[in-house]
Write a sequence for this structure.
């Protein structure tokens, strides 16, 4: 059969179908919903198919978002841990693959690193609402401190224990002291900034910079003092971050910490360790723009331990913290991502201080 005859037969076959489709379109209303749910226009159907794509966006409920997040790794801190092995955090971009399994250097002498070892430091805003970034003590009436009250009081070194106030003593200079008898033997005469309320704090009392005392998870009779460093927000999965006075950071719930009764005007002045006191003062000045190093699990970091820097592997990331594995002895620690134990942070913070001082001049 010739090509012309084939084309004529195809035309005769398709013509009735085209006519039926055109008649169906002519009988349709001017416009209306289609079977797909999108509106149509008869003129568009008659003279050509007009495709339309629509996308609807909606926000998932918070409980669904939480369900999609990976579980938060548990954090524990033990009384037996060395006070010098406090936690902090860091991320280096790339470490030289030719390096040995670990290396160390004395803290006062920073390594002569090239640019490839410089970590990425982010100083963007951490939280978004005034309630999440509050760092001013709320103007609320002070709770009364009286005899027979059960409190948490500083006993020795960095340890606090539960006890009872048996007497309120007025000194000659007008200062008040509190005589406390401890449940675990002993007694002490302490100031108001060395006792904490035994009751759970109220949310409206809390702010970044508040002086708090945290219960140790492995010993319910032992407490440690610290500074509240983060309020609950989406970034930290609705938890409180506390820096203990030994520089160790921990995420805790509301039931695990207590407010100091009469904190000093500058709470950081109660921190004995000079390096950590300086770090916390700088942290509070910078808040809510903390300096945090960026990294991923599997990357390497150089972290101070016992006055030496050691190579570590980043195991886990939990909001502002990382868990690192020290390669020289395989022990793990939780480190804050802006800690002065990270090799590059002391130099970075010192440069920031110098810039601030130059700006004031």
């Amino acid at each position: 059969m010739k090509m012309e005859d084939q084309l004529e037969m195809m035309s005769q076959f398709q013509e009735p179908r085209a006519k039926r489709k055109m008649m169906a379109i002519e009988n349709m209303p001017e416009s209306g919903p289609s079977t797909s749910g999108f509106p149509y226009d008869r003129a568009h159907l008659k003279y050509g198919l007009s495709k339309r794509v629509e996308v609807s966006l909606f926000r998932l409920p918070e409980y669904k978002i939480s369900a999609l997040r990976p579980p938060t790794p548990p954090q524990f801190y033990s009384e037996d841990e060395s006070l010098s092995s406090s936690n902090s955090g860091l991320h280096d971009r790339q470490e030289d693959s030719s390096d040995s399994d670990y290396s160390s250097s004395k803290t006062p002498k920073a390594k002569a690193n090239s640019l490839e070892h410089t970590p990425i430091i982010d100083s963007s805003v951490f939280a978004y609402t005034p309630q999440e970034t509050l760092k001013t003590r709320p103007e609320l009436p002070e709770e009364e401190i009286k005899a027979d009250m059960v409190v948490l009081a500083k006993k020795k070194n960095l340890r606090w224990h539960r006890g009872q106030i048996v007497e309120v003593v007025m000194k000659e200079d007008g200062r008040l002291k509190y005589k406390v008898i401890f449940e675990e033997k002993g007694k002490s005469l302490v100031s108001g900034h060395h006792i904490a309320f035994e009751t759970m704090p109220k949310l409206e009392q809390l702010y970044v910079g508040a002086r708090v005392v945290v219960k140790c998870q492995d010993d319910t009779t032992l407490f440690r003092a610290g500074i509240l460093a983060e309020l609950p927000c989406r970034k930290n999965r609705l938890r409180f971050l506390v820096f203990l006075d030994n520089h160790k950071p921990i995420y805790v719930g509301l039931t695990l910490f207590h407010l100091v009764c009469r904190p000093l005007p500058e709470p950081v002045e109660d921190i004995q360790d000079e390096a950590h006191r300086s770090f916390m003062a700088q942290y509070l000045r910078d808040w809510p723009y903390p300096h945090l190093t960026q990294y991923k699990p599997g990357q390497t970091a150089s972290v101070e331990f016992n006055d030496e820097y050691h190579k570590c592997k980043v195991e886990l990331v939990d909001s502002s913290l990382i868990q690192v594995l020290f390669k020289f002895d395989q022990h793990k620690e939780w480190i804050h991502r802006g800690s002065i134990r990270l090799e590059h942070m002391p130099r970075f913070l010192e440069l920031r201080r110098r810039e601030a001082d130059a700006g004031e001049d």
Observations:
- The radius of gyration is 32 Å.
- The chain is about 20% helix and 30% strand.
- The mean pLDDT is 77.
- The CA atoms of residues 136 and 225 lie 19 Å apart.
